[in-house]
Every structure is written in C-alpha cells, then in structure tokens.
Amino acid sequence: MIVITGATGSIGSELCRLLAADNTPCRAIYRKESQQPFFDALELEAVRADFDDIDSMRRAMQDCTNLFLLTAPDQRHVEREIVMIRLAVESGVQHIVKVSTANTNQSSALAYARSHAQIDHYLRGQPIDWTILRPTGFMQNFIEYAHPIGKGILPHMLGDGQISYIDLRDIALVARHVLTQPGHANATYYLTGPAALTVSDVAAELTAGLGHPVRAVNQSEADTRQALIYAGLDAWYTDALIEQFRIGANGGEIDTTGEVARLTGRAPRTLRQFVRDYKNQFTNQ
Ligand SMILES: NC(=O)c1ccc[n+]([C@@H]2O[C@H](COP(=O)([O-])OP(=O)(O)OC[C@H]3O[C@@H](n4cnc5c(N)ncnc54)[C@H](OP(=O)(O)O)[C@@H]3O)[C@@H](O)[C@H]2O)c1
C-alpha cells in the first residue's frame, strides 16, 4: 500500500490518476471535504490528514509500505517533511520517494534549494529505503502567466538563460515507476525535459501552439518582485522565486539528463506537447 501526500496538488493528482489506472493499492491524503470527489471518481482510497496534525498522518500511514512525500515548500518545509520521515520510519514504511528539486545545496541562497537539501540529507541517513527525485522547473509554471500570455506578453527576468523545463506529468510517471518497481533504493534522479530553452524559445512555442503572437519581455527584478507581491505571494516565496530566476538567468538549470526516458521507457514530453495539451488553460482566461 502506497500512501500519497500532496495528492491534491499538481504532481500528486497526476500520480493518483496513474496508480488508479493500474489498480495499484494506494491511499491518498487530502485536507478538504471538497477534494474527496476527485478520489471517489478514481475509486482510490483517500483519507483526510494534515501535516500539522501528526496523529492524522500516523493513522494515514498505517499498514503502508511506501510513502510518496511531497509538500509545497514554505518556512516550515524542513520541519514538516522531517516529521513525516520520522513517522514513516516508526510506522514500518519501507520506502520513501521524495520530490526534491534541482540544484539542492545546504548553503544555497535559494530558500527551497536549501530546505530540500536539508531534508534530503536527513532522509539519506534514515534506516529506510529512499529515492529522491530532483526535477528542474516545471513547464506548467507558465500557466501562471496565462493572462499576460493571452495579451501577447510573457514577462520574465531570465535574460537569455536556458532551463531544461520538465512537464510535471513526466515526474509523476517516474514516481509511479520507482514506487512500484524494484531497484531504486537509495538513488537520486535528476529529472529534466528534453531541451534547454530560453524564455524566447518558450514564447516561440506558445506563438506556434496558441495561434497568436507571444513575445518574451524581460522585466527588472523590482518589477518582477512587485508582480509576485500583487499575485499574493508571501515574502519568503517571493524572495525564493527571485533567487530562482537569478539562478536560471545564469544558466543554473541548463543540463538535460536522459533519466525520464531511462526510467519510464518514454521520451520526456516536449514544450510543444505541453502547449498543445494545455491550450485550453491558456485560452480560457
Ligand atoms: N514548480 C517547480 O518548477 C518545481 C521545480 C522543482 C521542484 N519543485 C518541487 O515540487 C514540489 C511541489 O509540487 P506540486 O507543484 O505538485 O505541489 P502543489 O501543486 O503546490 O501541491 C502541494 C500539495 O501539498 C498539500 N499540502 C499543503 N499543505 C498541506 C498540509 N498542511 N497538510 C497536508 N497536505 C498539504 C496540498 O494540499 P491542498 O490541495 O489541500 O492545498 C497539495 O496537495 C515542491 O516540493 C517543490 O519544491 C517544484
């Protein structure tokens, strides 16, 4: 039995669809009553639990052999994931698959590169099998810019920096594979898409896929910060994203790896495929 955290999020919900289609025994964790119908439709066992309610998580892990560990990073990221790892060890879970991030480093200026690095380091020292997935930036992040993209503008502060964006559906495919197939204990996988792209390359794909011109517009750090604050992000996350963009602008996420294809037997999705599949989310704004 696989217990899935982050099951209502982007990667987790995709993983749930994949595991439900395979009839793999699993138990998804959700927080709000309104999220239950998604799991009912998949005929997937689901329980209500919260990272901040340790007893609920302990109950959710009962009789489980594997844990898919994913939380949205914030100031309590390290504390929450370490508690989950401890609970898993105590509960007799045998294998944890954790979503981390590329460029993890305990001395990074990027808050979530630092917090993931701390958690990954802690996990590697536990008496339990683990697999750490380290993806680059998600193609799906561009959906956040659907409104300006609809007006023909893709704002960014990445300059000519290239990033090997990954479609998060491929992260879910890898997660399904490592959760259900042997041979991935104590391994760290760097997951990327098939090509390193500048934001101008992304704008060209959006232009071709959406059928109207989209132009990459480089904006200053101050304007980017203001836009993130207007979008409702807190100071911690705003600072983190600004740092992330600086790293991207300096070529920090260029390398492509063959890990998605090697692990799943399928080539990673291209940005063109992503734009085609998510066209409605860009046009229904
Ligand atoms: N975005 C990127 O480009 C990128 C790149 C590399 C790595 N990553 C990593 O990928 C992960 C994010 O993946 P994602 O986009 O799939 O996440 P997401 O869509 O933001 O989902 C977060 C999940 O965590 C759940 N959650 C939040 N607080 C909770 C709590 N207190 N108790 C129980 N569940 C809680 C959410 O539940 P609710 O639905 O109830 O809120 C949701 O299911 C992060 O670790 C991030 O660092 C992201």
UniProtKB/TrEMBL annotation:
Signal peptide: none annotated. SUPFAM superfamilies: NAD(P)-binding Rossmann-fold domains. This is SDR family oxidoreductase. It comes from the Bacteria. Gene3D superfamilies: NAD(P)-binding Rossmann-like Domain, UDP-galactose 4-epimerase, domain 1. InterPro entries: Ergot_Alk_Oxidoreductase, NAD(P)-bd_dom, NAD(P)-bd_dom_sf. Residues 6-142 form the NAD(P)-binding domain.
